[in-house]
Amino acid sequence: MIKKRIIPCLDVKDGRVVKGVSFLNLRDAGDPVELATQYDQVGADEVVFLDISASQEGRGTMVEVVRQAAGQLRIPFTVGGGIRDTEDMYQLLRAGADKISVNTAALLDPSLIEDGARRFGSQCMVVAIDACWMDDRDDWFVFTHGGQKKTDWRVVDWAQEAVRRGAGEILLTSMDQDGQKNGFDLPLTQAVASSVRVPVIASGGAGTMEHFVEVFHETSAAAALAASIFHYGEIKVNELKATLREEGVAIR
């Protein structure tokens, strides 16, 4: 049995970790390398760094964050945000990242996924999907540019296309649930996880330990990701993993 993973996510803006609600109202949450190191020490299985600055100076800042993190962390970590081509991927992997996450750039040019998988291997390629339910279309649709622009891609269709092109993992964020702390979007998570052959990371909405129990019991998600509840000490990773084991979840 493949064991489930717990993944703290660190949204990095100008070298600092920030967190908001539904991608808005950001507030400072600390130094990214210090936070990631703490998560490593308390049993997180991986961490994700997302550069939400996505500017040229942001890229330089993130390379330095990655280099520092690589010198401190024992666990794997993924880096995403503002990655435009395989050269950007190379710089981050060379600095020490284990995996690369692409989102907007992959939607603008899906061949980026293939190019990255061919050059670095599918195991390095994570496709992040920001999903939002559209009542008028009765389905989830993919958004780009930090959740600002709607695309014509239905979420399940895009997830399947990304995997076909070489994605080794899907990082699935519910924009509807992001920062709300009332639970993961279980129907969305299961719809995607049951439609692709690669691991799916559930993201958006975690507020209690029970929410993690639910997402692992009621969907095929391979991992669950959260941010603010970990950053501000509302849930401790080691205590969460102990609770999951007690609830019969096979956790790393």
UniProtKB/TrEMBL annotation:
Its main location: cytoplasm. Its EC number is 4.3.2.10. SUPFAM superfamilies: Ribulose-phoshate binding barrel (SSF51366). GO terms for biological process: L-histidine biosynthetic process. InterPro entries: Aldolase_TIM, His_biosynth, HisF, IGPS_HisA/HisF, RibuloseP-bd_barrel. Transmembrane segments: none annotated. It is found in: Cytoplasm. Pathway: Amino-acid biosynthesis; L-histidine biosynthesis; L-histidine from 5-phospho-alpha-D-ribose 1-diphosphate: step 5/9. IGPS catalyzes the conversion of PRFAR and glutamine to IGP, AICAR and glutamate. The HisF subunit catalyzes the cyclization activity that produces IGP and AICAR from PRFAR using the ammonia provided by the HisH subunit. PANTHER family: IMIDAZOLE GLYCEROL PHOSPHATE SYNTHASE HISHF, IMIDAZOLE GLYCEROL PHOSPHATE SYNTHASE SUBUNIT HISF/H IGP SYNTHASE SUBUNIT HISF/H. Heterodimer of HisH and HisF. This is Imidazole glycerol phosphate synthase subunit HisF.
